[in-house]
Amino acid sequence: MNPLPAPPSLPRRRDVAHAHRARGGRVAAVLPIHAPRALLRAFGFLPIEVWGPPNVNASHAAAHLQPYVCSIVGNALSFLLSGGLDVADLVLVPHACDSLQGLGSILIDFVHPRATVLPLYLPRGQRPCDVDFLADELRALAERLQAVSTRTPTSDDLFACIEREAQADDLLARLHEVRARLPWSDPEIYGLLRSREFLPAEEFIPVAEATLRQTGPAPRCGVPVLLSGIVPEPKAVLEALRNVGVVVVGDDLACTGRRLYRRSSDPDPYRRLAESLLSGPPDPTRGSPIRDRLAHLRELAGRSGARGVIFYDVKFCEPELFDLPRLRAGLQAAGIPSIAIEVELNDSQPHQALTRIEAFAEMLA
Amino acid sequence: MSGQGRVTARAGLFLGRAALRLRRIRAEQRARAWQHDVLGPPLRLSPREKELVGRHWLEARFAPGLGRKVAWVTSGAPVELLKALDFFVVYPENHGAICGTARVAEGLMMEAEAAGYSRDLCSYARTDIGCVLSGRTPVGRIPRPDLLVACTNICQTVLFWYRVLAEMFEAPLLLIDTPFVYYDEAPAHAVEYVKRQLEEAVPLLERISGVGLKAERLRDVARLAKTASELWMEVMQRNRHQPAPISAIEQFIQMAPIVEMRGDPETVDYYACLLAELDERIARGIGAVQAERKRLLWDNLPVWYRLRDLAETLGRHGVVLVASTYTNAWGELAPMIDPERPLESAARTYLHPILNRGTGHKLATMRRMIDDYRLDGVILHSDRSCKPYSVGQIDQRERLTRDYGRPALLLEADHNDPRCYAEAQVANRLAAFIEMLGP
């Protein structure tokens, strides 16, 4: 019997950033959720995403943020204040919610980190005026990036970056499609999927292609579920899912499944970027109607064979919490049970959440 | 609308108005006998304001019966366009505040929580959702919306909240997205974006209302909104006088018309009368507290269910809340409104409320108000339910104290949820703060 192939060996986020800097490159720390990676690359910045991270000393942020601000935002500030983002030349703060808005604002007005802080407003609709606005917003961002980097990419440079990122996104989407047939555990698969948050596209592409070649004929054994929410942290939860025999067969997480962008063919590079950024699956932070989210979850559950949905949210996350009652009721009506778990990123062993997941898995099994 | 329906609605309006008038007359009689050991006499106009607001909700109730379309809107929505198209405009946030002051919000929030809405969500939103789910309200009955309008210039929460309402009522949701202004002014492409949204909304609004937009009507409404906002600003600026004739706590009550009846002639009339009464109080040396000793700024929404307690606690020490960034927000943008260019100026105006601007801008506003109103300190209400207003307050407090030499207190509470109000802790912190203000 052939042993299972080893999962791809992936570098750590921090090591990728430092290696890039060591080669003379620039690093952009990018906060959640949607950001124009290609634009940053065109100006010579390697985007490294900051989703928290978990398990940082949260006391640093307490000097600036109230305790009712979510731990993704609080931890990001703590991480920055404790030197975790010293490798970054730039901090990009996309506007996704009131907490991220506040973080961007206090960074600009009060904290004044060494790295340049640039905000980006993402429109809440998908109307033609929203695309036009986002294209203008990206042009304005490009002007600021030019000032920071002293680099002036040509239109061709930008198109080349867009194409390279689109290739990586296409492969990421393929990985999501075949995830249940990959021969690894969910913690390993999430490690791979989330490497898109920090690997340069040209390094992610060969890793993704090699991974896709490992796709097996049949799904892994286990209770199939769909994971929704923001970010699969702390990792103890993914381990807990594995331990109780749950297999994640579909993903609607903000950090992964909601960022499967479609290609655009618009002849203007900024409109191409804008159309693509607004093309992802339904997302409350982009103003998608709840019924669209519900339809997407039902379709995803049907396509993947998921027997249940785990909503896995960070405490105080308003965009998620407002949708939950109607989403859960709609799923229930379709015969898809769900569970809602709230965690803090710094709670490395969220016992209550783990117990509830265990009970949910038993119920599904 | 059937003829019978219209007759019923008219009769209901007639009777309701009569009841409100009677209530006002009784309140005016009670007010004459009113006495307090620390607070100044109440405004003579207060019963009339209550009648005005009561009539608004009464008319809301019967608006569908009279064939008018109803729009539920966020407090920062560009309402002039809706009024020009004859929508009856309902503000769930104001309704939330009414529930808060009437101390019925908690029960409504529990209805929402029982339906799965987290206690970590905005207490206005929970109050409103609880009201929709239970049908309970202190204003009689709220009409179903034919349209929902969410403008993101006060928070993103309103969009998440109105998406829920859109599904509950199966009503169309109009989004007016107003990009957050991180720097000094909104960039030109943001102004253009908002203007375009307003222009593109017109056909939808005309279709729902069944009324065509007339430029002259829109100009008239904009003119009324501007005049009312200017008068409201003058009302607040009367507090440059010492003693301050109207406390910020009273302003929280008196601001209802500028929020929910902006663009109506009655609002202009009311604030003109209020201004005259304040001038009379100034002439007679009547203050909001009887022995004004210290003057404070309030930042953020009020704690609706503790307004009276706060006024009395502060008043006992001769402390008066003279100004607030919250009430100020409804007047400071008046100069931006240009009735001759209603949509373009609306785009610019509705991009620039304090809640849609950076934390540094709010600090600058507070400093300006401290100078303008000669204030001795600041209370920053850290409002668990309002992140856009609250995030930044820790740094603002530090700078007010360190760089501006003004004592500043961060007070943890929630504008509508009394379960987040720690009575003893608030009392202790207020007492210590008042002591720090000195003699």
Structure explained in plain terms:
The complex is a heterodimer of chains A (365) and B (439). With 365 residues, chain A is of the alpha/beta class. Chain A is built from 13 helices and eight strands. In chain A, α4 links the parallel β3 (90-95) and β4. In chain A, α5 (128-149) crosses α10, α6 runs parallel beside α8 and α11 packs across α12 (318-333). The longest helix of chain A has 24 residues, at 155-178. Chain A is globular. Chain A starts with 12 loop residues before the first helix and ends with a helix. Chain B has one domain (3-437). Chain B is built from 19 helices and eight strands. In chain B, the strands form two sheets. In chain B, strands 2-1-3-4 form a four-stranded parallel β-sheet, sandwiched between helices. A four-stranded parallel β-sheet of chain B has the order 6-5-7-8, sandwiched between helices. In chain B, α8 crosses α15 (342-351) and α9 (215-237) packs parallel to α12. The termini of chain B are far apart. The model of chain B has no long low-confidence stretch (mean pLDDT 97). At the A-B interface, α4, α5 and α12 of A face α7, α8, α16, α17 and α18 of B.
